Amino acid sequence: MNLQITKINGFIALRSCSEVKLVSDVLFRACKELIDDAKAGCADLVFKEICIEILSRAKAVLDDKEFKALTEYASFRMQEQSAISVDVIR
Fold first, then answer.
1. Nearest residue to 51 (alpha-carbon basis) of 65, 68, 64, 39
2. pLDDT category, 37, cuts 50, 70, 90?
3. What are phi and psi of 33, to 5 degrees?
4. Which tens digits make up the pLDDT trace of 45-70?
5. Out of 15, 53, 79, 84, which could bridge 19 as a Cys pair, Cβ 3.0 to 4.6 Å?
6. Domain boundaries, the chain
7. What pTM was estimated for this model as a whole?
8. Are 66 and 29 a contacting pair, CB within 8 Å?
9. Cα–Cα dist 43/6, whole Å
10. Taking the mean position of all CA atoms in its chain, how far away is CA 79?
11. DSSP state letters, the chain
12. pLDDT band at residue 26 under the 50/70/90 scheme
């Protein structure tokens, strides 16, 4: 059995590589969903601040490849036009 020591949110765990990958995939998808939800419900400026917060926390739990993919995804979503205008909120 191939085991790996991981550190998630300050806790050290001994897991099989398949379990680590599964947890990592779940965290990556959750981060993308958070970005999508923020995009759907926030004005552009607030969305960008939320993305920065999500990325700063994701850096601690994702591997480099997934973090780079999440950063590219967030950048793509930031460039899209927001569905909510600041004028509508006023």
1. 39
2. very high
3. -65, -40
4. 899 999 999 999 999 888 899 999 99
5. 15
6. 24-89
7. 0.69
8. no
9. 37
10. 17
11. --EEEEEETTEEEEEEHHHHHHHHHHHHHHHHHHHHHHHHHS-HHHHHHHHHHHHHHHTTTS-HHHHHHHHHHHHHHHHSPPSS-HHHH-
12. confident
**Residue with the two structure tokens 């793509």:** 76
For residue 42 the two structure tokens come to 């926030």
Pick the closest to residue 57 from 43, 71, 41 (CA basis): 71
